[in-house]
Amino acid sequence: MKLIRIVAAGVVLALGAAAQAQTDPLPSWNDGPAKQAILAFVKDTTTQGSANFVPPAERIVTFDQDGTLWVEHPMYSQVMYCLEHVPDVVAKKPELKNVEPFKTVLSGDREAIAKLTMPDLMKILAATLTGMPVEAFQAEVKKWIAEAKDPRWKRPYTDLTYQPMKEVLEYLRANGFKTYIVTGGGQDFVRVYADGVYGIPSEQVVGTAGGTKYGYGKDGKPFLTKEPKLLLNDNDAGKPEGIHLMIGRRPVAAFGNSTGDQQMLEYTKAGDGARLAMLVLHDDAKREYAYGPAQGLPATKVGTFTQALYDEAKKDGWVVISIKDDWKRIFAFE
Amino acid sequence: MKLIRIVAAGVVLALGAAAQAQTDPLPSWNDGPAKQAILAFVKDTTTQGSANFVPPAERIVTFDQDGTLWVEHPMYSQVMYCLEHVPDVVAKKPELKNVEPFKTVLSGDREAIAKLTMPDLMKILAATLTGMPVEAFQAEVKKWIAEAKDPRWKRPYTDLTYQPMKEVLEYLRANGFKTYIVTGGGQDFVRVYADGVYGIPSEQVVGTAGGTKYGYGKDGKPFLTKEPKLLLNDNDAGKPEGIHLMIGRRPVAAFGNSTGDQQMLEYTKAGDGARLAMLVLHDDAKREYAYGPAQGLPATKVGTFTQALYDEAKKDGWVVISIKDDWKRIFAFE
Question: Which residue in the set A10, A222, A223 is minimally distant from B9, CB to CB?
């Protein structure tokens, strides 16, 4: 009985594999150097007998999130979350009402909000992301991510994930790669939806992380409180440092889109054997956004793609993904 | 061709599964409450339709290492590593020769070394575990772990892993659980041998962790240097905090042996549904060691098993594993 069932499963698997071989694993990509680089890398590292064969345990691939897996303009979604939660914070601590930067946020003056400095933003992040039990925070993010909408597309932020990149995630996993998010965004924030949206479990999300504090509730039950104590700033050099802390292996492939990903891409590319480093260039103002001086486009506060980064990519053999040229379709809803 | 191979694989799998069903998954355990608790927990959480069924993604189990997966007496292996590497450090920095605590370690006076204070030990740890590239440290630990021998058994430390616990690790993994080490020991240290010895990949080792610093070598290649900066003290409350940081989920089962594991066991047990918390009691002076006041045995500097811990275990429904009564065989070489 059991034997028959397993043999039947084997047949189904075999038929599935045959069908798979005839299907394009990256249908949202135009045929071009970026798509070819991904296909060639996977073939080279997973074919038994290839000089660049990578054992399954070492097939670690890391992806930046904002601007690489989903839209980061006009503002990081997590910053939107924080700004929208300032009224909740002030409701609990009314003394903050007339204190900056909370006063500016409460004013709703978009221009003034856009001009907030980094130290101001840090105060807002600390106030809205810490001081509560881990589970309470997770529940709040879950609710927000289901309800909040992007101002341009009027859709949930999770709809604004890039379909071509989701295909890359699935294609890599189907070939035995372990896919990680390595984001400058909050680790606890991204973990809430990463599994549902990207198929990436919480233990494979590395992000900017704060400490927690173990304590006991009135019922004697233990719980963790989110503390305003930075453990890992997962940007720039913090990305390879975070990868070492959380994974302990050097990735064989990495995907990013800004100077915040530079060190992760360098670190990945510097390993032995076949390595893939890819950089998403936002050059499609019509279908998404265009930014970055490499294309003669204006630099922005987020997702900085500088000329120096572009030059390093070319020199070091990273593959630049042009959204305009390489992506046939950007979003699943299109 | 491919089809035939996959069907054949299905048959082999089916025959293997049939054989497995008739085999005791925990042959080194005596039949008793501890063994029964493990078997019952796995059945309860993995049987479809069970009220306590746990989806595979949530099957997270954490294991302390020292005293839970391998021998911790007379001294943690990692402390042995550090003491034995003091001469290397002094060779590079001769000015330390007459500075305490290095002077005492170099004297070889065992009694004096045993009396070193915690701040002294910290100085030795910092000097021997940091200040070098990550890869250099990994190579050094790999070499040491292959050559160093335990003073009592005259065998590599990795031979002194507990066979009954290795069976538990394999049994849990065969039932879809993800097994993690959550150790007070150094994360980078344990990761070197965890895969070979326990079948646990580096990304599933959580331990006391220091920061690293990203930089470039003379050849322009990037590398990480181990820094004397503590990021996570993975003991006591640091264990659930480390679990949240590195895994982001509450374990459904946890294994420990000392007060350093108390909070991890509490945190695990406080979750909903079926939970398993187990505590190894070292009560077998003949075959291993006996320590802990719960058995009227002398307390020791390492692996503290207090009366309060024993009382909490009884009150909170943790299962105490008696090495004397529950383990038929302790080591694979016996």
Answer: A10
Give A283's strand partners.
A290
Query: What confidence tens digit (pLDDT) does each residue in B105-115 have?
Result: 999 998 999 88
C-alpha distances in Å from residue B56, one per residue of A201, A283, B59, B172: 11, 41, 5, 11
pLDDT of residue B91: 95
DSSP tag of A260? G
CA distances A248 to A240, B187, B246, Å, are: 10, 9, 11
In angstroms, the CA A289 to CA A303 distance is 11
8 Å CB contact between A224 and B241 = yes
Q: What is the pLDDT of residues A279-303, one digit of tens each?
A: 999 999 999 998 876 555 555 444 5
Average pLDDT over residues A21-40: 94
The shortest C-alpha distance from B115 to chain A (Å) reads 32
Alpha-carbon gap: B46 to the closest alpha carbon of chain A (Å): 18
Residue B41 has pLDDT above 50, yes or no: yes
- At which residue do the structure tokens 């002294």 appear? B120
CB contact under 8 A, B270 and A222: yes
Instruction: Say whether residue B227 is in contact with chain A using an 8 A CB cutoff.
Output: no
ipTM of the complex: 0.91
Q: What is the CA radius of gyration of chain B?
A: 22
On whether the CB atoms of residues B242 and A245 are closer than 8 A, the answer is no
Pairing of strands B60-63, A276-281: unpaired
Q: Alpha-carbon distance B201 to B209, whole Å?
A: 16
Is A222–B17 a contact, with Cβ atoms under 8 angstroms apart? no
Question: Environment class of residue A303 by beta-carbon count within 10 Å: exposed (0-12), middle (13-18) or buried (19+)?
Answer: buried
| Pick from B209, B183, B178, B148: nearest CA to B70 | B183
